[in-house]
Amino acid sequence: MKYESFTEGDTYRLGKRMGENAQKGQVYCLSGDLGVGKTVFTKGFATGLGITEPISSPTFTIVQEYEQGELPLYHFDVYRIEDIEEMEEIGYEDYFYGNGVCLIEWAVRIKELLPKDYIQITIEKDLDKGFDYRIILVEENQL
């Protein structure tokens, strides 16, 4: 599916809708350049799950855990992963195959660890259509 976002609010609302419909065990891979709105989307997604605590990027911690919603949210940022073994050290399988929902930024860096089924969300800018304009592609992938 292809969505157009004209404002941060649009991106947030799409994330919220997707969070409201998320199911236990789903893995979402979120990609896009820096500053494209991944964190805005994630905040909306968390709201859709019923999470009210502040959401921040786990850039330096690899994973942030939010347990208070309808389902736990495990928000990964694997940009800084140098070696796949770092994911094994944090016990990624417990997150990916557990009772929550995973949202992974920069998942291409750990592609070999992703489950067979995941949802790819790609956010892209199109400055010809305006500074805040985004195209958001949502695709179900099967390896």
From TrEMBL:
Cited Pfam families: TsaE
GO molecular function: ATP binding; metal ion binding; transferase activity
Main location group: cytoplasm
Record-level GO cellular component terms: cytoplasm
Listed GO biological process terms: tRNA threonylcarbamoyladenosine modification
Keywords, in A-Z order: ATP-binding, Cytoplasm, Magnesium, Metal-binding, Nucleotide-binding, Transferase, tRNA processing
Top-level taxon: Bacteria
Gene3D superfamilies hit by this protein: P-loop containing nucleotide triphosphate hydrolases
Localisation: Cytoplasm
Family listed: Belongs to the TsaE family.
Name assigned to this protein: tRNA threonylcarbamoyladenosine biosynthesis protein TsaE
The organism of origin for this protein: Lachnoclostridium phytofermentans
